[in-house]
Amino acid sequence: MISNFETKGTVLIKSADELLNFSRGEESLLEKQIKDIADAGIKVVVAGAKFGDMALHFLNKYGLMGVRLNSKFDLRRLAKTVNATVLPRLTTPTAEEQGYCDAVRVDEVGDTRVVAFVMEASESRISTIVIRGSTDNYMDDIERAIDDGVNTFKAIARDGRFLPGAGATEIELAQKLLQYADTLPGLEQYAVRKVAVALESIPRALADNSGANATSVVNNLYKAHKDGKQTYGYDIESDSGDVCDAKAKGVLDAFLLKNWGIKYAVGVATTILKVNQIIMAKRAGGPKPKQPAGSDDES
């Protein structure tokens, strides 16, 4: 595979013979390079740049297939799929730099022609999912569902722990924070209570999206958790804001998602508070500069 670099080469010609033989020498050099690639057993050449007419001629002469990829991301992704190495220039790759796939063919998906690199073996690490539908909105919904599923699998592969979903984890944390706020003196308890209120946004969003009364849902969740039902969350299938055992129903959230979500939220909040503190200090005039030693004030 050949990457695309935005550089230009310069050729220095010193005589008339070199000028006459320049094109012929370039053709011979290009033909030798492509012949060496074909002799190495390579059948497909993938490049990030445009193939010239001369290169296409010699590729066709030696029975090689040329594929151009405009995206550098797609080029790296394909190299990872076929276990190949991206080379900066046209040269004969070594055995370790060559990739392999079972078949390369041109298929038609709908009315679009695509080049398919087919891996028949089941141990392939990368696959392509083609989404087809009647409307763009329908396909966008399917794409988001697939993206959520892939990200969930990635989170499970990194950390296999789960937490009760349906807002159960957030309400349990909010209740614990409210109990902790009661033990704090002064103004600190108000900051802790605000964090607890912020955690209520998840079950409130679930209730609002399903058309239920968010305040009633949150109150029912608090009541259930005060009774010791720590795994109870909002039952989205009910019409009156009822709660259910999320763990028993199999409604679970990845631990990694909750962990990093809370960390990032707290980090954003503390950063905004620091910025506000700096702005307020500047508006107030900031700290007064220190007087140098021996000034008139000391005298």
Describe what you observe in this structure:
- This protein has helices spanning 16-39, 53-61, 72-82, 136-158, 168-181, 188-199, 201-209, 214-226, 246-249, 255-283; strands spanning 44-47, 65-68, 103-109, 112-118, 162-164, 232-234, 243-245, 252-254.
- It is mainly α and 299 residues long.
- Strand 6 (232-234) and strand 7 form a beta hairpin.
Provide keyphrases for this structure.
two-stranded antiparallel ribbon, two-stranded parallel sheet, single chain, 8 strands, mainly alpha
Helix content: 40-55%
Low-confidence runs: none
Mean pLDDT reading: 79
Q: Give the H and E element order.
A: HEHEHEEHEHHHHEEHEH
Oligomer classification: single chain
| Largest beta-sheet details | 2 strands, parallel
β-sheet strand percentage: 5-15%
Give the CA-CA distance, first to last residue: 79 Å
Total helices: the number is 10
Strand and helix layout:
Elements: H1 16-39, E1 44-47, H2 53-61, E2 65-68, H3 72-82, E3 103-109, E4 112-118, H4 136-158, E5 162-164, H5 168-181, H6 188-199, H7 201-209, H8 214-226, E6 232-234, E7 243-245, H9 246-249, E8 252-254, H10 255-283
Parallel strand pairs: 1-2
Antiparallel strand pairs: 3-4, 5-8, 6-7
Helix pairs in contact: 1-2, 5-6, 5-8, 7-8
